[in-house]
Design goal:
mainly alpha; 5 helices; 130 residues
Length: 130
């Protein structure tokens, strides 16, 4: 079992991830609760707080309850949700690599969700280019 000691210095891994709206809601509630309790918390702090709780609960003797296991595994069977989360991940990667403006990504997302067969996007011209 891993132990986490305050003051351990480890490099922080920065990731862009797609979060399900229900999970986002609970992260925000946790964030609010932590701030109200006097902690200097951020969205990332709340997410890590929740994940650590879930991890430690899962690895303890007996692990998660049967009901929790069923709910977590049923999430993976929700193909629509998984597809939407995967789409958001892919769009974020494309946007990062190509420096695409946010409004263009929003337009691409909407066209994909509408299942348009052809997605043509006109990128704004850069200053000084014809």
């Amino acid at each position: 079992m891993h132990t986490l000691t305050l003051g351990d210095t480890m490099p922080i891994v920065r990731k862009t991830v797609a979060i399900h709206p229900v999970v986002d809601s609970y992260i925000r509630k946790t964030w609010s609760m932590l701030v109200e309790a006097g902690y200097d918390a951020t969205y990332s702090t709340a997410l890590n707080f929740m994940l650590l709780g879930a991890i430690f609960e899962a690895v303890k003797e007996g692990g998660w309850s049967q009901k929790t296991r069923e709910l977590v595994w049923s999430f993976l069977e929700d193909e629509k949700t998984i597809s939407e989360l995967n789409l958001e991940d892919q769009l974020a990667k494309i946007a990062d690599k190509l420096s695409i403006p946010k409004n263009v990504i929003v337009e691409i997302r909407e066209k994909i969700k509408a299942r348009e067969k052809s997605v043509k996007i006109q990128l704004p011209k850069e200053e000084g280019k014809k």
